[in-house]
Structures are given as C-alpha cells and as structure tokens.
User: What shape does this take?
Amino acid sequence: MNFKLNKIIPQLATLLAVILVFGFLTYNAQVNMDNRGIEFGFGFLSQESSFDVQFSLIDYDGSHSYARAYLVGLLNTLLVAFIGIILSTILGVIVGIARLSPNYLIERTAAFYVEFFRNIPLLLQIFFWYFAALRALPLPQDTEPMFGVFFLTIKGLFVPRFVWENLDIFFYSIIAAIISIVVIKNYARKLQESQGKQVPVFSISVGLFIILPLLTFLIGGVSLNFSIPELEQMSTTSFKYKGGLGIPPELIALTLALGLYTATFIAECVRAGIQGISKGQKEAAASIGLTPRQILKLVVMPQALRIIIPPTTNQYLNLTKNSSLAAAIAYPDLVLIFAGTALMQTGRAIEIVSITMLTYLSISLSISVLMNWYNKKIAIKEK
Amino acid sequence: MFKNVNKIFAFVLLSLMMFVYACDQMGGKQSKGQSKTLKNTQKKGFVRCGVSQGLPGFSNADASGNWSGVDVDVCRAVAAAVLGDSNKVKFTPLSAKERFTALTSGEIDILSRNTTWTLSRDADIGLTFVGVNFYDGQGFMVRKNSGYSSVNDFKSGISACTNLGTTTELNMRDFFNSKGISYEPVTFEKADEVVAAYDAGRCDTYTTDKSGLAAQRIKLSNPDDHIVLPETISKEPLGPVVRQGDSVWEDIVRWSLNVMIEAEEYGVNSGNADSMKSSDNPAIKRLVGAEGELGAAFGLDNEWSLRIIKQVGNYGESYKRNIADTGILPDRGPNELWTKGGILYVPPAR
Assistant: This one.
C-alpha cells in the first residue's frame, strides 16, 4: 500500500504542477489581453480576407475568407514539402550510392557535394538560389526558349500546360493497369513458389503501364493538347506570358534549396544503411548463384532499408518544417500567408500562431505515422 | 523516494506562489489611476521606441548607429518631455509584421514606424493611435523606359512587389479590382528585399507609400531609371501608436507631437525657445512653460514642452532636417501647416 502511494503521489504532483504552470500562463495571457482590450476568438476566420496571394492551388482571391486563405497557405506548404521530399529522396539515394562507388572521381564528387551543401545554413542557400542564381536569369523578352516550349525567366519558369479531353478515362486506364500489375505479380510469385518458373514481371508491368493508357488515346476518345506560353507585350518594356503554366521563381528557389540541402543528409543515411550490411551477406548470396542485381534487390536493400528509414523520416520532417523559411523569399506558404499577412491584418496573434503551430504538428505527425507504418512493414518479422 | 516527493511538492508550492503573485500584480495594475508606462519609463531611464528597419527620412540609423527621422523625433520628443534628455531612447527596429505584437506585448512603449491609422487597427487590436505626423498616400514606382506614365496604362498580368502585412497590400487589391486588372502580388517581409526584387526585374512595379517610394528609390542601383507615377490611390495618415489602456501615457505622446506642430505655428523653434518666455502672446508663453500648469495634468513639470522644442525642435525643423534636406520630398505638400495651405492642424495646447 505504502509502496503504491509512493509511486502515485509524485505522478499526481507532476500533473498538478503542469496544470498549474499552464493555468498560470493562460491566466496571465488572458489578463494581459483584457487590459489591452484584445478579445480572443476564432470568428475572424469567416471574415473576408481582402488580400490576394501570388500563387494558389485552389481558387482564391481577396473576397474569400481567412479560412480559405489558411487552406491556400497549407496547400502551398504541402506542395513544397511534397516536391522537396521527392527531389531530396531521388538525389539522396543517387549520391548515397555514388559515395560507395569504386570510381574515385564519382566518389569524391559525391563526397564534396555532401560536405558542401550540408555545412552551409539553409537560409543562406535559399537566399542564394533566389537572389543570386535566379536573379541572373534574363527578363521575359530576352529569353531563348528551351526545346522551343520552355521559358526560364526572372519571372518564373513557363511550361506548356496540358489540355485534356476525357481525362477521367485516362485515369481509369492507369488504375486498371495498376490492378492488373498487382494480379500478375501475385500470380508470378505463386508460379515461382510452386514450379520454380520465373516470369519477367518488371518488363510486363512497364509494358502494361504504357500500353493501357496509350490505348485510351486510340479508342477511348482521350486527347491531349498543349497550351504553349506566348510572350505578350504589356508596355514598352514589360512583358508577360499568355497561356501555358507559370511556375513562380520563389517556388523553384525554395524547392531547389530544400531538396539540395536535405538530399545530403539522406545520402548519408543511405550510405550508412548499405555499409551496415555485413560483407558476408553479399558473399553468401553470390555463392548461391544470385546475380549482382538480385543481390542488391533481394539481399542488401531489404536489410539496408531497415537502417535507412528511421533517420530518413527525421529528414522528411526537417524538410517540411524548414519549408517555413519560404517567408523570406515571398513564397506564399502557411507562414507567409497565415502567420504573416492574415496575422497582421487581423491582429489575432495568439489564435493564428496556435493554429499554425498545430498545423505543423499535424503535418509532422502524419508524416511520422506514414513512415512508421512503412518501417514496420519492412522490419524483421519475428516468428 | 521521500526526497523526490519533497522536491516535487516544493515545485508545486513555487508555481502556486507564482500564480498568486501574478494575480496580485494584475489586480493592482488596473486599480491605480496613474500611468504605469510613465512610471516604468522613468524608473528605466529610457523610452522604448519601435521604429522601422531603415526608411530614410522617417527612421534610419547611420553607420555609427544614430537614429534620425521624423518618426524618430516623436520618440525623442517624448524622452525630452519625460526624462529631460532627447537622447534617452532605446530604438527597436521592427518589420511591418512584428510591429503591433511588439507594442501589445509590452516590448516597446511607443510605435513610431510610418504606421497607417485605420479604423480596424485603432479599434480592434489593442492599439491607440495618438495623431498624425505625416500625411501620405500610396503610389507606384515603375521603370522610366517601361512606357507607363500613369496607373491607367497598367494591364492585366502586371506583377507588383510590396511589403507583407501592410495596408498597401489591401489598397493594391482594391485598386486593381476597381480597374478590373488581374495582377501578381509578390510580398516580402523586409523593405530591403522588396527593393532588391524590384530592382532585379522580378516585378513591373513597386508600390508603397509615396514617401517610402521616394526614400527607397535612393537604394536602387540606378535611381534615375525609375519614376514614381503621379497618381495617389489611398489615404495613408502615418502616426505614432501606443498600447490601449494607459490614457495618461497616450496623452503624453499625443501632446509631445502636438507641441512640435504648434511650436512651428507660433514661430517657436529650438533657437528662440528660451527668449520666447518673455513673449507677449500668452499662447506662446504657455507653450514654453512660462505660464499655466500644463505639465501637471500628465504628472510632468512645467518645462516639458520647452525641452521638446529646445532639444528636438519644432515640426518644421524636424521635417527640414530629415525629409527636405535629404532630398526625399523637398515639397511639404499636405504636410504644411494649415495656415500655409497644408492640412497640419492640431488642437490648442492650453
């Protein structure tokens, strides 16, 4: 009895202390706000925002509400995080493997890249890509198109936009292709387990993935046109592009900086993962007659992934949180739109900052959950 | 184990004490009639003043860290009135985004940072505007060779650089919407970044208060290649702001500014202030503290206004020193006294 009490009392006391500290902070904030005539509430979210943003994935202008402006910022943040994660993963895996290359030049280049980009503060890199690198680009009227259709200018990258007809049929065909690939894969595995026959699943999958969607163009009535950007003169020296899709330079600079920076850390995770597999594993695999590709795919990678995934999750989280540096270069992310302009125009500091914090927390936790699920899936299944 | 328990109890007790102390403090604050901000300022020995991160003519620091400008002079005037020395000011440079939070959270006591007086700011977010020290309006800067000679030449697709979290951002939308023009807003937190982006060609036009355009133009690589279009699209009365809830402090700041303007009206300046004590005009005598008990209402001595005029000068001197002589806006325009065709008109100091 005494023993139990000894365990419970400290816990209760800690809980009480935490509640008291929070209570004190809340009370303090409330009294300060009362003294200064500031009210607390979330009613402002439904008010008209009356400011525009430069770049939005959904339909938005100043006549929409602050809640909608929040959504615009959130989606822009997710967009940067998504592109950044993909870019850094691809680059990180390539560089990580390159660091283990027996080729001296490749190995040194990869090592130099990692050491260089890893050790310069991210904000400086963002400024570099935005103010130094992108600023060196030509004005719209002086731009020479790449391949006739891409225009890289100081006002952004202008690319042809897809104009689809019957896009839904095209999507269905892709889904159909994915389902049939899964079926074929299962069948191939059964075939191998029962009869030892190997089916070239990879080539069949690629073939299906290309042929099925292509068929929809021929018989499904799907058609694809391109809207190519065209230069239009607004006045003697100011020009803009009509048609096509404009990618703002802020987005390019931000994803480039985030991707290049985070890729260095992922490269190190990948290198550590591969080096963490003992040589004996590879030799044993080779001795039973597996090809080098099979060794990498069936023996090394499944084990290396267990080492790579957890630290890589951290890098994904870092990248997502670092995307809030967007505010420095006018990319309209959550921090710039919501914790910046909206906060300024409404003056609701406490409400907006708490919403923003909770949002980043939710994004990070979601990424964590997803990566933990994947990690569990590839972990050693103890039987 | 018991040791641990004791420690935790001590911690709980401590937080409890903090809590009670805080309640006590908060309760005490409201009941007293005099100015807590004034008391704190006198105890600290300096006025805490929020200014811009560098806007020539309004608040700008030179190479050795000395601040100057018409906004800076408001804080200096308050320091002269309250502490007797116009140099006893601690300046905090703030971005447009940070400024109100810094004031409401108590980090600064006066915000004198080319801030536009609007209804929602005054009524909504715990701020009180005390007056106007510069009448401004929003304008557009473009490249001279761009072919734009008026805002009516603007066409859909134009990109405009400006500061984040300002009335400028809202006016811009109203303006372009009323013209039916679609535009690309590019908003930065720091004025220097806006200037750099416009200078590089990211934007076709740079929009902010006209005084700001005139001041920032100097920072461009080739100032002569740029012009400010003639149109003014908004009213931007700029003035100092204080926290809501301390009416005595509010009055001190308001009347420090008013005294500077009134001094110009009566021809009192830093050079002749002392000799004006023997003036025949009772209004002038009140202004320099030779008659009446004007300071007593704020809890200040009677020479507070004399110190402002002697140490900082009247509004005209401040304008000339900071804005006219630096070549930013040599013409005072609306910021001339009402007696000389402008709109500067302050209530009488009596």
Remarks:
- Residues 336 and 342 of chain B are 4 Å apart (CA to CA).
- The radius of gyration of chain B is 23 Å.
- The longest helix of chain B spans residues 2-31.
- Residues 26-32 of chain B have pLDDT under 50 and may be disordered.
